Amino acid sequence: MPALDCIIPVHAKDVFRLKRCVEGARMNIVGLAKINIVTARANFERIREVLAQEDSSSIRLVPETEFLPRWHFGAIDRHTGALLQQCIKLEGGRLAATEHYLVLDSDVLFLNRTALFDAAGHALFAVDSPRPKFEAHPIGVPCHAFCSIAHHLLGSEFKLHDECYICHHMVFHQPKVRELLRSLGDPRRTARKVVPVTEIWSEYDFYAQLIKQAYPESFRVRTHPWLDVPWSGDWDGPLLDSFLSAFKGAGVEFVAIHHHFDARLSVEDCFEFADWAIKRIDQPDTRGRWPLFRFLSMKAEARATNADVALASRRTFGFLFKALSKALTIMVVKYAHVRRGRTFRVAPALYSDSELRQLASDAMSWREAAALCMQHVIAPSFRTRISSRGWKQLEARFANIDAALGSIQLEISLGAGEVLRRNRLSQRIDLLRRHWRKFRQQVIDSKLAPDAGLESHWQGLDETSLRTMVSFAARWVPAPVSQLSRVLGPERFQTISPLLRQGPTAETFPAHWLEVSA
């Protein structure tokens, strides 16, 4: 079993997690050798305090400014911070004395004995299984985007519903990482080539794509369950011990505890999640990110069952608006995401007749749903509540969106050969993205949302418009079932509930949620 040096990039906000992370890795990862913690020098003292009980000879603190001396360490926002830690992971081989090295996120806690190589020497990767009823991975667009960008930058096979390898740690083979870095070039320049989606790229996913394409026999997939889990209590003491022991006893290999869930659930909710997930742990779809995503959705639905109509109207509007954003983002991800000078890199496989027919269908349904949302949600709710100038500006921006969609449809109508020759489709989609971003930002900046008046408007809405909007939105995001029922009324909700059974709502909620009445 090869020895593994370990690299852990650590942001200041995650220092308090390190004790549990290092303890779990030391106790459970077979062959773990030296641990290199790469962080800002300002964090050193706190880290030494947190890891005071650990063997200091096996842990090295590395200042990120010395490890990446050419990096510009100015103000680091979410985007540049993510890119920085990705570069640290890919350059981690410079710290490792072993041929393979393990990269570990600081919020990962290994609970059970874990071998990262099999007896034949194959690296063992964790995976997060796809959810076919989601147009992308249930966490949203990122995995979809990563695979697509990898297709353009690495030439790897593009599969929308492929497994997700972004599982908070990975075993890297130094020669293969060097090959990946040669393919990517300067990561900061690469980042500027990519049209902003929700994330730029994932070092874990890029590496997995390279391995799958060029070295498919060098790795195998681990089958033991793992979970994203919430935790809002203290990070030391018997309460967290009890929480983690439940997952350990159920055979969960590791858990990832993300800070952005801390404020959303109480400690009691966290234990409720543990009980709920563990009872289903033998089911292949109750692993990875999906269980927490589903649990949070169900908790939100339970809290909203008795919500007033104004809140229900806002949630219904959010459902439609989020679906428009997600559908458009995936359109961008597939066709307009890697820049080459003033144009975009073309991937012929994505411009076949069948792909363009699907894009034409998506663009038409997006255009229709957006127009109905403008007419039946935004106009009744906003027209009299913002200034005349503001409303005219919103109308003008929506007209730009509609015109951009029209130009996309016109371009597609030319056929695959002409689309490839002209190479304008990606630019037109990117223009649509920019118009939508301005429109969406104005709606957000207005700080307005539909009020109780939407209930009477929607209950008089014609059946065709209602079904068109709901069926479009339900394809992309889970519906707020109780709120939708509240706004429409029980009888009208029953007429459209079959539409929700075809999309992610059916995977998010048990069947009885789709039969809910106000």
Indicate the CATH class of the largest domain.
Answer: Alpha Beta
Number of strands: 12
Predict the CATH topology of the largest domain.
Spore Coat Polysaccharide Biosynthesis Protein SpsA, Chain A
The end-to-end distance, rounded to whole angstroms, is: 59 Å
> Which bin fits the share of residues in helices?
40-55%
| Poorly predicted regions | none
What is the CATH superfamily of the largest domain? Spore Coat Polysaccharide Biosynthesis Protein SpsA, Chain A
- Structural class assignment: alpha/beta
How many separate domains make up the residues? Answer: 3
- The second-level CATH architecture of the largest domain is Alpha-Beta Complex
Please list the strands of the largest sheet in the order they lie side by side. Answer: 3-2-1-4-7
Strand content: 5-15%
The radius of gyration is 24 Å
Summarize the structure.
This protein is of the alpha/beta class and 518 residues long.
Descriptive report:
The protein is an alpha/beta fold and 518 residues long. The chain folds into three domains: 4-221, Spore Coat Polysaccharide Biosynthesis Protein SpsA, Chain A, CATH 3.90.550.10; 227-291; 309-515, no CATH class. It has 21 helices and twelve strands. Helix 13 runs antiparallel to helix 14. The longest helix is centred in the last third of the chain and has 30 residues, at 353-382. The mean pLDDT is 83.
